[in-house]
Design goal:
The protein is α/β, with parallel strands linked by helices. 50% of the residues lie in helices and 11% in strands. The strands form 2 sheets. It has a 6-stranded parallel beta sheet with strand order 3-2-1-4-5-6, with helices on both faces. It is elongated.
């Protein structure tokens, strides 16, 4: 039974580590904040640094927010790399830059250890249910050793290629998710503004070709107005930024990805960076002057002339524009009145 080090025990890492512990693995734990008491009570050993985690463990799993965090955990002062020795395996399950991942892997390999990038999809719900999709890049021998661990945390586990390919697959996943959230938001907003019951429209669509996991889970969030974060907008912005930066480097255009990023930017400009990413629909609602599920009668009765406000908004003079994290000019956003 392998000893497992786990660094990063937040919304995702905490339940993932719990599944490994329940399977009988001894855990060595490290985080910037307090360690979840249930992991300690079940025998988890708290370590003072990434170096100590690596010294004590056969495999070291990272689950942290972004590329700079992975770099600091691995190569910062008392970082995990300092505690590595031949035969150990580092697994980064964060969602970070594919290019940086390849460089990190080379440095870890130089210390005699293997490196797998294994980002996940499924959010907090999937982490708690051990039903994550896990996209792995790295050497097949290391993947085969760790596949039983992956299967304790996820249901769909795939080795997609070499180092960096797991992260590339995750970026592709995030493009699809963002664009599908946008499509579901547009569809339900259209139905609601037309006077249909969006909950019943969603129910009907779930039985047809438009059915998707996004329509099922995030469509329900939109209808019920539940935007408590499962996956925060600010994290999805980070992922789309990776997509847009990668596209620029490849000489590739991703026009709809850029639009989705601008909608997220609009939400962030309205204080929504910690909203669930399904709240992208709020940006669409602000432009429509209509919230999914609300009656259209008050809007008709008010007879508000939105044309001057719309022109002001498109000119950026009514409210502030939100600058994109990819360096593009932000999309102007409309007030709730029009």
């Amino acid at each position: 039974m392998m000893d497992v080090g786990f660094i990063g025990l937040g919304t995702m890492g905490r339940p993932m580590a719990g599944h490994l512990q329940a399977a009988g693995h001894r855990l060595f734990l490290h985080d910037v904040g307090p360690i979840a008491p249930e992991l300690v009570a079940a025998g988890g050993i708290v370590c003072k640094s990434g170096k100590e985690v690596a010294e004590q463990s056969d495999v070291i799993i990272l689950m942290v927010p972004d590329t700079p965090h992975v770099q600091a955990v691995l190569f910062g002062a008392s970082g995990a790399a300092e505690g590595l020795s031949k035969g150990k395996i580092v697994v980064d399950m964060s969602s970070i830059s594919p290019l940086a991942t390849k460089e990190f892997a080379k440095k870890i390999n130089a210390r005699g250890a293997d490196y797998l990038d294994a980002p996940v999809s499924g959010g907090e719900v999937g982490a708690k249910a051990a039903s994550l999709t896990i996209m792995v890049g790295g050497p097949e021998r290391a993947f085969n050793i760790l596949k039983p661990l992956f299967e304790r945390m996820g249901k769909n586990v795939t080795l997609v290629g070499g180092n960096g390919d797991g992260q590339t697959t995750k970026v592709a996943n995030q493009i699809i998710v963002a664009l599908t959230i946008e499509a579901v938001g547009e569809a339900l907003l259209f139905a609601s503004k037309a006077g249909a019951d969006p909950a019943l429209v969603r129910q009907a669509l779930m039985g047809g070709f438009a059915s998707s996991r996004i329509l099922e889970v995030h469509g329900e969030r939109m209808v019920k107005r539940n935007f408590d974060p499962g996956f925060r907008i600010e994290l999805h912005q980070k992922d789309l930024n990776l997509a847009l930066e990668g596209a620029r480097a490849l000489g590739l255009s991703l026009p709809n990805t850029a639009v989705a990023q601008q909608l997220f930017n609009s939400c962030t400009a309205h204080g929504g960076k910690t909203w669930d990413h399904s709240a992208m629909v709020r940006a669409l609602e602000m432009m429509a002057g209509h919230e999914i599920g609300e009656s259209i009668q008050p809007k008709q009765a008010a007879s508000i002339d939105c044309r001057p406000r719309l022109l002001d908004t498109l000119a950026g003079s009514h409210v502030g524009s939100a600058n994109g994290t990819d360096g593009t000019i932000g999309t102007p956003v409309l007030s709730n009145r029009c």
